[in-house]
Fold these 3 entries.
Entry 1:
Amino acid sequence: MIREKQIQVIAAINSGSSSLKFGLFCHNDPLSILCTGKVSGIGTANCSLAVENASEQNELSSCAVSAESAEEAATFLIEWLKHRDKQYQFEGIGHRVVHGGLLYQEPVLIDDRLMNELNRIRSLAPLHLPDSISIINVFRTAFPGISQLAHFDTAFHNSMPFEAKHYAIPRHFWTEGVVRYGFHGISCEYVYGKLTEQDHHPGSGKIIIAHLGGGSSITALIEGRSVETSMGFSPTGGVMMNTRAGDIDPGMLIYLLKERNMNADELEHMFNMESGIKAVAASELPMEKLIEKRNVDSKALQAIQMYSYHVRKQIGALAAAMGGLDIVVFTGGVGERSPEIRQLICSGLEFLGIELDSKLNHSSAATISDSTSAVKVYIIPTNEELAIAQHVKEYLESH
C-alpha cells in the first residue's frame, strides 16, 4: 500500500472565554490555509465544532461536541486533528495567550518557566488565562516533541508611551503589574500588515483600528506602533461590549462593595458576564438580531445607540491623543459585517474628516470612505490564526 506524502502543518490555537478557534496551515512559503474551525458554546448544551476546508471549495461541516470545559474542548479537538488526515505532520503549534504580564513582550517558546509565570499572573485575566493554561497543557501532553509557541495579545501595546501605559495610582502598584496593557494585539498586528499591502503609505499615518466583536477595543497607531488603546488593565475595560461593562467609575466599585455588600466574585461576574449590550438590551441576542428589532424594541435601540456612542467617543479621544487622524480600519465580527453600526459610529465624526460612501458601506466593500473624505476608512477582516502561524513559521525557520 502506497502511503500519501505527509504534509508539514503548522497549527494555530486561539482560545477565547467560551470558544476555541484553530487554523491549520501548510508549512510552505507563503503559508497556505488548509482548514479553519471553531468549537463554540463550551460548557453549554449547544457546544459544537464547525470546520471550513479550504481544499474542498470552502466546504463547511459541523458536529455536536460534549465539552463542559476548555480542557475537554481541547481534548476533543486534538482527537479530531489526529484522526482527520493521517498524512498531516505537525511541525509547530502556536497559541494565542491574552496576557503576558510585564515579563513577556514577544512570542516565546512554551516551557515550564513560561507556564509557571502564566499560573502566577492568571488573576490578571481570570476569564481567559486559566482556560489558556489548561489548553496549552493538553496540547503539550498530546504533542510532546513539537515546538509550541505562545503569542501574547498584550505584546503589541508594549510600545505605548509612559503617560498612556500607567494609571495615576501609587507607583509601587506599577511594579506589581497594575498598569495598562491593552489587548487584541495579535489582531492589530495582522490588520496593520494587511493595511500596508492595501495602502502603500500608511506607515507615517495616524491610524485607528476598531476591533469590534464580542469583545471590542479601539487602538491608535503612529508609524505602525501602538500609542494608545481603549482596553487597559484587563479586557473588561474600554468601550462597552457584548457582556462586559467597559470603563466605569471606581467609586461605583466602592459603593457596590460597601452599600450592596457584593463580593469580588459577584462583581467580576456582573461586570464581565451580565453587563454591556446584554444588560442594556435586556437580551442575549447578537448584534444583527438587535438591529432587526430596533424599530420595535426600545431597549435594543438603546443598546445599539450606546455601543456606537462608546466607540465614536473613543475614536475622537484617540484622534486627539495622536493629534490627527488619517485612516480608520474596522475589523472583528461586528466591524466587518455591520454597515448599520459603522454608519452610526461615523455619524458625527465628520469634523475629523470622516465621510462614508453609503453604497460602499452597505456592501461592506474593502474601502468605504467617500472619495472626498480626508480620512480613509477601510474594512479589513482579521485573521489572528494566520498571524500566529506566521510567527511559528519564522521560529521554525530560524531554529
Entry 2:
Amino acid sequence: MLTLRKTLLGFTMAAVMLFPSVAVGSPVPYVYQRVGSGDNMSVTTEYETAYGSRQSRFFGGKGLEQGLRVRFQPWSFVNVEGWAGMLIGAQGLKAKAASVEVNFRVLNEASHYLDLNLGAGYVFDYLGDHVPRIRMSVGRSFGDFHTILSALAEIPVNEERDEVDLMLSLAGSYSITPWYRQGLELCVEDMEGLWEPEESEGGAKFLLGPTAYFEIAQHFEVKLNLALVLAYLSNQVPTDGQDPGPQTGFMGRLVLGYTF
C-alpha cells in the first residue's frame, strides 16, 4: 500500500510538472475576452487563425482570417497590446486590420474580491475605418470556476456608420485538470441594433460557443472556440441596398500563445 501511494504521488507530481496549472495573473483563457494580465516584464505572443461564414464585429467576414497579437506587461497592473490581421477570401486578400490597446487593472481579486479592468485603444477595422474604443471588464474566481463580464464601446470615425457600436461579452470556464479548462463564451455585438431599425452593420448579432483552453507545456497555451452566430434582423430596414447578410452563421478560431 505504501509503495502504491508513493507511485501515485510521483505520478501526480510528474503530471503537474508536465502540465502546469494556469497561474494567477496569466492571460484569461478565452478567445473573445481580450483583457489579460501576466507577470511583470512579460511578453505574450498569440497566433490566431479563424474561419467564418458571415460578417461579424468579431470577424471580418466570410473567409479565412490570420492574425498576430502581442501583449507586453511592464507591471502587474498595466499591459499594452497590439494586433494585426488579414482576411482572405476566395479571390485572395480581402482586407487588413490592426489595433492597439492599453489596459489597466484597477482592482485585484486578491485584495478587492474581484478584478476590475479598464482599457482604451484604437482599431483600423476590416471595413477600412478608424475606430477609437473603450473597454471595461469585471472578473471573479470561485474555486476552479472563473467568470468575466465585459463591455466594449467603439466610436467609428465615419459619418455613414453608427455613432457608437456597443458590445457585451460574458464568459465562464471550469478547471477540469491542472492543464485543461472548458469554457463557454457569449458575445452580443452591435447591441444598438436591438432598438434601432437602421443599424449600419446589419443589426445586432449573438455569438455563442464553447472555448477549450490547454496549457500543453510551460508558458505555451492553446485555445479553441467554435461558435454559432445569430443575427437579429426582424426590425432592420435595409438602406442603400445594403445586404444585412444571412440570419445564421458560424465561426471557428484557434489561438496558439507563448509567454516569455
Entry 3:
Amino acid sequence: MNKNRKILLIFAVIVTAVLVPIIIFNVRAPVIIVTEQSLTRLYGEDRIRRESLYSSFRLFRPVKTVIVANDAGDDIVPHAVSDVSLQPYCVLFPLRFARSAAIYQEQNPETRIIILKGNYPGEMDLSYGRQVDFFVYRTDLEADFFKAGFVAAALAAEAALVAETEGNNGGIAVFMENRQFSHFGTLARDAFIRGVNRQFEINNMYGNHPVISFYTSFHEYTGAEVLSCVVVAGSGYEYFERKDGVPVIFYSWLDTSLAPSNVVAVIDDSPWAQVIQAVTLVSAGDRDGKISSKFTILNNRNINLRKIIKID
C-alpha cells in the first residue's frame, strides 16, 4: 500500500507540474495583434499560426490576431479587439490603424497600446484630437541592412567560388524605396557596407570586395554589370522578371513558400515577426525604440551559405 501511495504521489506531482503552467498560461492576459484580411492572405494563415504559437511560448502568454476587413471603419476595430479579450496585456496596431488605436485607448485607458511604424520616415501626429499614451516602435533599418550586407557578402563569395573567379566576386545591387532612401539612405548604405566588411573580416574571405550599387528604381539599373546578389527592399520588384538565377535578399511579408525561386533570404518586419521584441520593450517601460526584423534563410534554395555563421 505504501508503494502504491508513493506512485500516486509521484503521479500527482507530475500532473500538477504539467497542468499548473498550462492553467497559468491560459489565464494570463493575451497580446493582441490587429491586422486586415489582405495582409493575412499575403503573409499566410498557417505562417501566422506558427509565428503566434512560437511567440506565445516565448512570452508565456497567448498571442492572438484580430483580423478586420480592409474597409473596416475606425470605430469597428476597437469592438473587434474587445470581442477577443476584454483586458488584454497589450494591443499591437500597425500605423495605419492609429485612429482606431486612439479610440480603443480612450475606451480602455489601462491597456498598453503599441503602434508599429515600420519604415515610415518622419514623424506623424498620432493623437487625432485625442489624448493618447502610445508605445511607438520603428523598424530598425540599420540592423536590417547590416544583416543584409552580411549575407550578401557570403553570396558574393559563393558566386566567386562557383565561377572560379577569385578576385571578382560580382557586384551587389540594392533597391530601396525612394521615400526610405531620401530619409535613411546614408544610414542604410553605411550599415550594409559594414555588414559586407564584417562578413569578409570574420571569415577571412578572399578577393576584392564586391562593387555595391544602390538604386531607388529599377529604371536606374542598367543591367550591364555582373551581379552576385540583389537586394529588393521596397523597389526593384521588376528584377524578378529577369529570371537569371541571381540570388535575391527580399524585404517582404510574402509567405516564404510563395517567394520566387531565386529568393534565398527574407527580411520580415511584420507584427508577427516583431511582437516578442515589442512586448519586451513594453514590459521594460520603453515608450519608443527600434525593432529589428526577422531574418529567414530559405534552406530549400540551392545556395551554399556556410559562411553565414553568425548574424550580429
